[in-house]
Design brief:
The chain is mainly β. The protein has a single domain, classed as Peptide methionine sulfoxide reductase (Metal Binding Protein, Guanine Nucleotide Exchange Factor, Chain A, Beta Complex). Helices cover 11% and strands 31% of the residues. It has 2 helices and 9 strands, in the order ααβββββββββ.
Length: 131
């Protein structure tokens, strides 16, 4: 993928998408369109469209953000140490476009024990095709 300038990102993304995907802000809990979304399909990066999560791994963590117990493909997600806001967390980014997706925690369900806590604004949903 061609690296985009911040001006290109500002033109392509909504103000809210830009603030979260590019500036690493966070949407308020229980406000995003996918925190309680239960349809079957895949979730893609809102910045570049790469597939990130499957609805089969989505669960209600009670935190107010979409939560997933695993990613579809390791090569599509990058993890970085985040020391902002006086905490040490693991930031989750789209490996393709570098967009901020959310954070990873180790309090998810088995078998992974992981919780990918993702901003709704950072993802788009694609419904599974009926066979």
């Amino acid at each position: 993928m061609k690296k985009k300038s911040e001006e290109e990102w500002k033109k392509e993304l909504t103000t809210e998408q830009y603030s979260i995907l590019r500036l690493k802000e966070t949407e308020k809990p229980f406000t995003g369109k996918y925190w309680d979304h239960e349809k079957k399909g895949v979730y893609k990066c809102a910045g570049c469209g790469i597939v990130l999560f499957d609805s089969d791994t989505k669960f209600d963590a009670g935190c107010g953000w979409p939560s997933f117990s695993s990613i579809l493909k390791d090569s599509n997600v990058e993890e970085k140490v985040d020391k902002s806001h006086g905490m040490i967390r693991t930031e989750v980014l789209c490996k393709n476009c570098g967009g901020h997706l959310g954070h990873l925690f180790d309090d998810g369900p088995q078998p992974t024990g992981l919780r990918y806590c993702i901003n709704s604004v950072s993802i788009d949903f694609e419904k599974k095709k009926d066979s």
